[in-house]
Amino acid sequence: MNDHRRKGRRGSGPAEPYTRITRPMVRGRDGLLHETSWDVALDAAARGFAATRDRYGPDAFGMFSCARSTNEMNYVAQKFTRVVMGTNNVDSCNRTCHAPSVAGLSAVFGSGGGTSSYQEVEDTDLIVMWGSNARFAHPIFFQHVLKGIRNGARMFAVDPRRTSTAQWADRWLGLNVGTDIPLAHAMAREIIHAGLVNRSFVARATTGYEEFAAEVEPWTLDTAEQVTGVPAQAVRELAHAYATAERAQLCWTLGITEHHNATDNVRALINLSLLTGHVGRHGSGLQPLRGQNNVQGGGDMGAIPDRLPGFQDILDPGVRARFEASWDTVIQPRHGLNLTRMLDAIERGTLKAVYCIGENPAQSEADCEHTVERLRALDHFVVQDIFLTRTAELADVVLPAAAAWCESDGTATNSERRVQRVRRAVPPPGEARDDIAILCDLAARLGHPWTYAGAEEVWNELRALSPDHHGMTYDRLAEHQGLQWPCPSTEEVGPTYLHGRLWSDDPRLRGRPAPFGPVKHDPPVDLVDGTYPIRLTTGRRLDSYNTGVQSGGFASPLRRGENIELSPEDAAAHGLAAGEVVRISSRRGSVTAPVWIDPGLRPGLAFMTMHFPDEVDTNQLTIEATDPIAGTAEYKATAIRIDRIAAPAGAR
Amino acid sequence: MTAIPLQLPRRLVEFTLDGRQVRVPEGATVLDACRAEGTEIPTLCHGDTLTPKNACRVCVVEVEGARTLAPACSRRVDPGMEVRTGGARVRHSRKLVLELLASSTDLSTTPHVAGWIREYGARPDRFGPDAATRAGQEPKVDNELYVRDYGKCIMCYKCVDACGDQWQNTFAIAVAGRGFDNTVSVEHDAPLTDSACVYCGNCIEVCPTGALSFKSEFDMRAAGTWDESAQTRTTTICAYCGVGCNLTLHVQGDEIVKVGSPHDNPVTHGNLCVKGRFGFQHVQNRE
């Protein structure tokens, strides 16, 4: 390890919380990271980027931007990528969660945001929580759901696990992992055969109905029951409840998106809303719940490889021309690489330098050992973070950053498209600096002397380029406690729900009709068989978060470390008691963890989190099978086996 | 399935407040009207995010024609009603309520109460030291996040409502015991760590007396370093999931010492989860 005090977690055993890094670090000839001055570190970082660009061209560079930093920082990071380095290789951890939601929604509606506001789930008649344990993962959204339930709405939970969300449901549909499309298609077929299609909406506002109806026709209730494990009667009940509700909200989270065919999953859910007209009205809509505080905003700001700020299509020459004029540059007229493909490109040797801001791919990516090997292969790796994460430990240059949410000014965008002010409440520790200032110093060293007086100046530059954000001045954001996009006018507030146009009587106002997606079922890649007989799925707990770098910092009385959660039936079949440490193996790796017995799991289904990777690295088990459209990995479906380590009866 | 009616625009109703004609939206309470008119009414058990419980009776007002005083926090305005907020009956009643509460309970951390005691001429000490039936209990310190100091509890029920069906729906706490012995408690009066509590801290957000407090505040008060005049309050966005909860960070000496959320915020309505309320420590974990 490093010669200086090693910051971060020490040794094995229960992890100590990470401590903040306060000085820049550069890897020396001895192979270790040494603290140094900002000038030395920035020179080293810039020199490496310049050398990569000069030797291999702009596309040998990749930016991992940060879904937990501000909109302003994401705007500057993508501008750095496109203007200073000259590539579109910029992405963030949106790839590991909701990129399929963005891809699916924008393919159908032309816009990648959830269509509804939180208030609407209080005013609706039916709430479907599909692949979402919002009670744990989005607790304050779930308070709006609880208001809706108390106002008389029915709630259906569709989830392989009987979660704490399902405990509030009228019905729990415990489907087999990865059978969301059969369930959705069977609902669609039932809606069609029962004559419950919203015919006028389908005729006026959609395309591709006939093809879609043919695609779902084989999915009878009985066939769906065999594939999904959900009783036909329950599928029928949900189909009828959804189709006949005056208003209905369809909410989903990573149970839909962390699959190898995730964009198809999203399309299958959107199909249901098109069939019944549950979109584009108050109380009727589609609500993907996003997992990082600014993962919506990072994409909106263009920190994705296929969109310019304001979610504007990078393939549109008119759009590019406006940005090129403003930035005095030439933007490549093609999509860059997403995070998944950047990691592949590192392995192929075509991506040589990475600038990683506030992301922890060494622990967050599926099959993470593989990711660590790839990051080690980089010629030049710069990490900007608030902690010396496992990812930062691999870097050539480590730049200590301010914590965006409380040490920076700016804005962030939430799951209901509400842009809200982020404000500096405390100073960053030691020599840690604001992300934007660091980016500008690097840009200056690479020939682009940008000066922003502050985050507001960045925001106003963005407002001039993004029609959807134009009306959102900082003053108005403060006055209205946030504004929802699209907000083109400084005189009006944005709509609370999207796509009301689809209900217009005037075909011109209706705009492009929404296409059905005739998607096909494709079971999880990692097959359950005699050797790996148990299906492992993953998710969050209430008091912890992602790789635990943030949430490990406070003393939660609820925290119980990593466990392998098993159904009572499987625990009994293996002769396991709660607390016994077992070996969990997949086709890629193996870890050990104590058993926790959860009666909410059905036989054959196991559950783990990713919150404690320093103790139990769950992502050594997961499979890197990724969605071809959005690049999201199938974290939700791993085939595992459980083996005892200790002999029973006190041998340990 | 029946449609749920969405809220319609409300009509205005007119009534007399301390001799003045006042118009308020239909359904407004006397307290809403008083606050809109700038008439000060003391409140303890009233919560701006909660349904009134009418527990403390410190907000009572006189309604012409009514036999008893009415709690302003829950009495809705009727057209033509006449309300007086400062008469002798009202002042006497408030004085007695303050005397009973302040003699039995430790109100040392209750905002505004010292001023009201002066204003209404209350003398809590006239009942003697034996009246202190609650004050002096040992605070319950059983976890690193928050402290329950029931010597400061006035049994206003706000924490129970916030934990229960009005917001959190966790139902970890309820009122236990009867008469002088009643108290807010988890099941079997167990430590919090053996209860259903999920540490959202939404009970702390609504507690009017400081009976429930962040452990950081409790420790700083014990050490004599808690100084609200030296604190800043800055509202920003939570560092965790994508719901976008607004956090109000209370900062003293460049350290976050307490976290709340604006009660009128459309995302949170003043509520947070354990990560938002207590998950700030990572930014100030230093070598």
State the secondary-structure class of chain B: alpha+beta
Please state how the strands of the largest beta sheet of chain B are arranged side by side. 2-1-5-3-4
Helix content of chain A: 25-40%
Shape of chain B: globular
CATH fold description of the largest domain in chain A: Rossmann fold
The biggest chain-chain interface is: A-B, 78 and 60 residues
Oligomer: heterodimer
Q: What is the number of strand segments of chain A?
A: 25
Total number of helices of chain B: 7
* Radius of gyration computed on alpha carbons of chain B: 21 Å
Protein name (chain A): NAD-dependent formate dehydrogenase catalytic subunit
Pfam family, one (chain A): Molydop_binding
Keywords (chain A): Iron, Iron-sulfur, Metal-binding
Organism (chain A): Actinacidiphila yanglinensis
Would you write up a description of this structure?
Chain A is built from 24 helices and 25 strands. By secondary structure, chain A is of the alpha/beta class. In chain A, the strands form six sheets. A seven-stranded mixed sheet of chain A has the order 2-1-15-14-13-3-4. Chain A has a six-stranded mixed sheet with strand order 21-23-22-25-20-24. A five-stranded parallel sheet of chain A has the order 7-6-5-9-10, sandwiched between helices. With 287 residues, chain B is α+β, with helices and mostly antiparallel strands. Chain B folds into three domains: 12-86, Ubiquitin-like (UB roll); 90-131, no CATH class; 146-284, N-terminal domain of TfIIb, CATH 2.20.25.90. Chain B is 20% helix and 19% strand. Chain B contains seven helices and twelve strands. The radius of gyration of chain B is 21 Å and the shape is globular. Chain B starts with 11 loop residues before the first strand and ends in a 9-residue tail after the last helix. The interface between A and B is large, with 78 and 60 residues.
